[in-house]
Amino acid sequence: MSIEQIFGVVFIIIGLLDIAGYIAYLTGIKLPISFWKLKPMQDRWGKIPGTILHFIGYVVVPIIFGILLLLGHQP
Fold first, then answer.
1. What angle separates helix 47-55 from helix 38-45, to the nearest 10 degrees?
2. What is the pLDDT of residue 75?
3. What is the C-alpha to C-alpha distance for residues 22 and 48, in angstroms, rounded to an integer?
4. In the Cβ-directed half-sphere of 56, how many Cα atoms lie within 13 Å?
C-alpha cells in the first residue's frame, strides 16, 4: 500500500467520522468530540450557509480527496 493510499484511507475515515458527528449533532446526542469551528462559521455566514460550508469543508472535501488518492490521482 502506497503512502497516497494510506492518506486516502485516513481522509475517508475523517470524513466518515464527521458524518457520524453530524448525525449525533442533529439528533441531540452529546459526543466527546465537537465541531469547534462550526459555531464561528455560523456566526460569520449565518446558520444555514455556515453549516453548509462547514459540512462541505469537513465532510465532502476529505471524502472526495481520499477517494481520489485511493484511485491513484496525485495531488
1. 130
2. 61
3. 14
4. 7
3-56: pLDDT as tens digits:
999 999 999 999 999 998 889 888 888 777 777 888 899 999 999 999 999 999
Element (H, E) at 22: helix 3-27
From the number of C-beta atoms within 10 Å of its C-beta (0-12, 13-18, 19+), residue 62 rates as buried
CA distance 37 to 26: 16
pTM to 2 decimal places? 0.83
Query: Using a CB cutoff of 8 Å and minimum separation of 24, what contacts does 69-75 make?
Result: 69/4, 69/5, 69/7, 69/8, 69/11, 70/4, 70/5, 70/8, 70/9, 70/12, 72/4, 74/4
pLDDT score, position 55: 94
